[in-house]
Amino acid sequence: MRLLRPNLTLRRRMALPVAPVTDPQTNVLPPAREGNTALRWIKENLFSSLFDSVLTIISLLFLFFALRLALDWVFNLAQWDVITENINILMKGAYPSDQVWRIWLGLYLLGAIVGINLRAWNRELNRTTIAIAAIPLILALLPFASENARINLIIIQVTSAAAYLLTSILGDKRRRQLAAVMSILYIPVFILLLEGFTDEDGIMPLVKSDLWGGLLLSVLLATVGIIFSLPLGIVLALGRRSRQPAISALCITYIEVVRGVPLISILFMGNIMLQLFMPQSLPPIDRVVRVMMAITLFTAAYMAEIVRGGLQAIPKGQYDAAYALGFSGLKSMRVIILPQALRIVIPVIVSQFIGLLLDTTLVALVGLFDLLGIGQAILSNPNWLGRSQEVYVFIGLIYWILATSMAFASQRLEKNLGVGRNYDESQ
Amino acid sequence: MNRNSAPARTEDPIIICRDVQKWFGKYHALKGISMEVMPQEVIVIFGPSGSGKSTFIRTINRLEAHQSGQIIVDGIELTHDVRNIERVRMETGMVFQQFNLFPHLTVMQNITYAPMYNRKWHRSKAEKVAMELLERVGIPEQAEKYPAQLSGGQQQRVAIARALAMQPKMMLFDEPTSALDPEMIKEVLDVMIELAQSGMTMIVITHEMGFARAVADRLFFFDEGLVVESGTPDELFNFPKEERSKQFLAQILSH
Ligand SMILES: Nc1ncnc2c1ncn2[C@@H]1O[C@H](COP(=O)(O)OP(=O)(O)OP(=O)(O)O)[C@@H](O)[C@H]1O
Ligand SMILES: [Mg+2]
Question: Taking the model in full, what pTM does it have?
């Protein structure tokens, strides 16, 4: 696959003069565009023939009416009180209100970590960075945010900006180390904050995870699944290719068994069976943790196959060159082969992650109240009879925003890492 | 122009191959190759396609395992022992027909990673050596580029620099110029000639007979997994003994 798109980051990094990009195959400059105006574009693309024009007009009419219906519904027909009244429970489930400050504290930390990471991995502030950095502020401006939420969101924004500025003091390498360490530590720290560790009268009394819910739970499940399934998947993929027959047989069996079973049955198994197999002497594993394990183990099997696909795309010459330079099997995997293989499969990995996010809605079936589960609980309250459209549209919109941001982030990552850059010449 | 000025060789051979045999399944690819290479010697291997040249050279750093016979490199016998294999590979640089640069790394990283990871050099030392090598192969200005941004000849010179960065005692070349356009062949050969003259021990598979005439001490003609004939360039070019060598040389020299 040849690349026709210039690698902008690369050029920037090297401070090369930006020359017109040539097609590497032919070395021909792209044709010059004269009079590149909007009008010309419209004429060329939308009204180039009679048939085109008819299609364009029909589509426009359709769009117009659809949009008018949608807007009419959003602004005149829909009754959004079901959302505004329940926004807290939609966001955090049954998490006790007097302990909500712990979630906010966790989010301040998250803001700081985002700030550090933005500073560490980006060479300069660009539009995307600013858009990501300003998410708390944008949320604070949403119409249904409560006074309390607004204040907290603004604190997150300030923490994030402060962390960004403070990280600037450090050198390039230190920044990245800090960012990596903080990011790895974050999830356990956040879970500890949610869970609490003191008794009833302490500052952080235990909050049983059965009470966690809503968007909080959905995002937590998805994040944990994403973070742990990829390394596990890599290990499984390498195990599957292992020359040790016992190891590869084990990995193949695991992968194929898990891929042959729907997530929901693994969730049920994790929920019921795990408890049966556990020795009585051990304390029972928390239900949320069981679900996290089930989701991670399930996704890892798919991840393994994705990674294996990437590994297969690496030509034998890369192994030859690495071995010839004295890299051991493990080191050549880590330094030479895996970075290339993972880059190739980023788009597939991300769509798997998006699938994972959307699949977390299944946990409602084993008694957890994720965002969708909370929505259904709200709708079962007779007070909110007939508001299902509003609730489902709102929940759908949240999932859509989350999934789309992941897709968008993946595109940025691909661009930064030069996925699809022309590698052919060196193979 | 053989290197008559080279010091008299009294040392032991640095590479010893005795009756090396190799099968791919049922196919007998190497049928008993013996060869001794002295330090600072330049060996050229040539022969028809499929004669086992690549297979043989790849047994020397164990990219292919031989199944019978003996290979001793720098005093270390190649067996299944992984530690020995890695020790041999550190002392043996290899350059491939298809360059095999690491596409996700810059030229500088391509060159510095192996000494940093495998010889535990500090980055600053590795980068200093890399810059010297890039200057030696004539492309110091390409250090921050990615392989795909270089021409074939430049890529192959980076590959040579990458192998040299490990400071190997010997270099193996598997048809280093046959994937190159004619105008780039010379720039790579020049680097290899300079390397040979600097005293590097080299085994080179090539059909560039000009190169062989210029720097080879001995030539080996391979056919069907055997060494059909070997000798100095003078012996092989002017007085080939075997019918097959005569025919093959006539073919490639007529080009
Ligand atoms: N991995 C392999 N599996 C099976 N057969 C192989 C393998 N590698 C090489 N061979 C066979 O061994 C024989 C020798 O191959 P080799 O690559 O050593 O030839 P060569 O002399 O280098 O040829 P060329 O000039 O085309 O590079 C060929 O017949 C080839 O098909
Ligand atoms: Mg070959």
Answer: 0.83
